[in-house]
Amino acid sequence: MRVFDKNSNIFRLLSESISQGILVVNEQQEIVASNQRSDQLFGYDKDELLGQQLSILIPSAQREKHKKLAEDVYWEDIGIREMKGRNLSGLHKNGEQIPLQVGLSPFSLYGNKYVLTLIEDLSEIKEKDNQIYELNTQLEKKIRLRTQELRDTVAILKREVKRRKEAEDKIKDALQRERELNDLKTKFLSLVSHEFKTPLSGILTAATLVGKYNTEEGQGKREKHLKTIIGEVRRLNTILTDFLSIERLEQGKEVYRLADFSLSKVVNEVIYDANMILKDGQKINYPQNIDDTIINQDERIVGLALTNLLHNAIKYSSEDTEIDFRVNLSENKITFHIKDQGIGIPEADQKHIFDRYFRAENVLLTQGTGIGLNIIKAHIENLGGSIYFKSKENTGSVFTMELPLART
Ligand code: ADP
């Protein structure tokens, strides 16, 4: 024991020359030697630790664990045993905990067992670790923030690209529509000029000829030319009515009037007019079952639609053909069928027949505007009805129109 006396020069010489703390503990866990570094580390005065239990330097939470460790150490072979990395800490006199790295070296002297403990203060390293950890955390935070900012910017950019693409598409659409409109205008103007030119020159010729037949014998011929004039004027009138209808329909200005009217009266008028334009040998088979029938619908539209369908049947059929005009009445619906033995509609064109200005390729040499069916379809649908057809080229067509009835 003398070797650890406070005045022992050998111990002092050896222990004070190194930078680590040194503690020597006996089997009773009493501190029997402590160098200056140890005293400083734990905040004790010189020699104050001597004779104290080692446990005063161990935080209470670790004491139990340390006790077990100490018991094991005395039975181990002599040699330094590192307690590095075990998250050790010592207890400073002021109650603060100090992170430590400890090396244990058991030895025997004069029949007694001791443990020499080399103590390294890790406070500075821990402090650095903490700083590094802190810096890392801040860096990670910054990276997260920047990544988020980047994501947000990418999202904004994507939205912007999408917005611009949509705007571009809109402009393209508008341009396309503008082009189509221009095409339509051109088509429309040439159509109008063409459609008006023929009847007008017909009227001019007929009127000139009428003037030439000034004798009584020429009455028959005069009447024939007058009939031509009336027919052509009617045609012009129909075309103009169609154009006006388009405008009214498009602006939603069309007004429908549902009222009771005599079905046979309207059908008679329509057939009477149609008879005027029949070709040689053409015949319209009058519907059988409509006498005394009063229906509630828009009389003007029914007349307009039937006129249109009948005129087409006549126009697109040759001489010596028949046109069947049939009517089916049920409690809440009236159905008209107009069947001809005409040129029919080529299959490829059938899906476009109700498109405005559309004309099938087999009628291009016959006069027409491609407006009539488009207009009557709009009217019929506005009234809650429908129109459809079946057709075979060179055999004939049958157009069917259905209209709802409020009451019969
Ligand atoms: P338009 O007769 O003035 O050309 P419509 O709108 O009345 O215009 O008809 C559109 C097109 O439908 C016609 O150009 C023609 O090709 C076709 N069509 C209509 N009715 C008949 C029919 N009864 N037989 C053959 N084709 C028809």
UniProtKB/TrEMBL annotation:
Domain Histidine kinase: 191-407
Reactions the enzyme catalyzes: ATP + protein L-histidine = ADP + protein N-phospho-L-histidine
Pfam families: HATPase_c, HisKA, PAS_9
CDD domains: HATPase, HisKA, PAS
Class of this enzyme: transferase
Keyword field: Coiled coil, Kinase, Phosphoprotein, Transferase, Two-component regulatory system
Listed EC numbers: 2.7.13.3
Family matches, as InterPro entries: HATPase_C_sf, HATPase_dom, His_kinase_dom, HisK_dim/P_dom, HisK_dim/P_sf, PAS, PAS-like_dom_sf, Sensor_HK_Regulatory
Entry-linked Gene3D superfamilies: 1.10.287.130, Histidine kinase-like ATPase, C-terminal domain, PAS domain
Residue span, PAS domain: 7-60
Coiled-coil ranges per UniProt: 157-184
GO MF annotation terms: phosphorelay sensor kinase activity
Highest rank taxon of the organism: Bacteria
Name the record gives this protein: histidine kinase
Annotated source species: Ulvibacterium marinum
